[in-house]
């Protein structure tokens, strides 16, 4: 039997969601001579220190990377539930794998756009990519519901 790629896509999504945090830490370490407050990385004192010592454009990219990281984990349950619903309903493996691959590709694109988009006008493309990813999940739920 071949690999079940749609199920493997769930931990792949987790990994895609962790990458922006690692990138954010690298940004800050690069701007602060290697300093990172791992004891309290979200503490107000550390945030104030970063605001004082990190260039504004680097800090803004750090904040977007952290937001992309959080957004990935906020969307992981929806994706996992959609894939699992498809499996429980007995959707064709090709359908599940294709949907999962498309979703992961959109998550990667969304993450890149989130981290690198600083203009309001181009941020709408990021939102469109996010919406397409959610649409894939909804599609799996609908297909599973209609088949069950």
UniProtKB/TrEMBL annotation:
<dbReference type="InterPro" id="IPR023352">
    <property type="entry name" value="MAPEG-like_dom_sf"/>
</dbReference>
<dbReference type="InterPro" id="IPR001129">
    <property type="entry name" value="Membr-assoc_MAPEG"/>
</dbReference>
<keyword id="KW-1133">Transmembrane helix</keyword>
<dbReference type="GO" id="GO:0016020">
    <property type="term" value="C:membrane"/>
</dbReference>
<keyword id="KW-0472">Membrane</keyword>
<dbReference type="Pfam" id="PF01124">
    <property type="entry name" value="MAPEG"/>
</dbReference>
<protein>
    <submittedName>
        <fullName>Uncharacterized protein</fullName>
    </submittedName>
</protein>
<feature type="transmembrane region" description="Helical">
    <location>
        <begin position="128"/>
        <end position="146"/>
    </location>
</feature>
<keyword id="KW-0812">Transmembrane</keyword>
């Amino acid at each position: 039997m071949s690999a079940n790629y749609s199920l493997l896509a769930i931990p792949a999504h987790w990994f895609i969601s962790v990458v922006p945090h690692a990138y954010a830490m690298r940004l800050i370490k690069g701007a602060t001579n290697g300093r990172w407050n791992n004891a309290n990385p979200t503490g107000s004192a550390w945030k104030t220190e970063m605001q004082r010592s990190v260039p504004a454009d680097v800090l803004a990219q750090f904040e977007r990377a952290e937001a992309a990281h959080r957004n990935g984990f906020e969307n992981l349950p929806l994706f996992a539930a959609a894939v699992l619903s498809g499996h429980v309903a007995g959707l064709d493996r090709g359908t599940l794998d294709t949907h999962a691959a498309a979703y992961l590709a959109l998550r990667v694109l969304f993450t890149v756009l989130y981290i690198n988009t600083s203009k309001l006008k181009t941020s709408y493309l990021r939102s469109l990519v996010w919406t397409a990813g959610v649409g894939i999940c909804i599609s799996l739920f609908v297909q599973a519901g209609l088949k069950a």
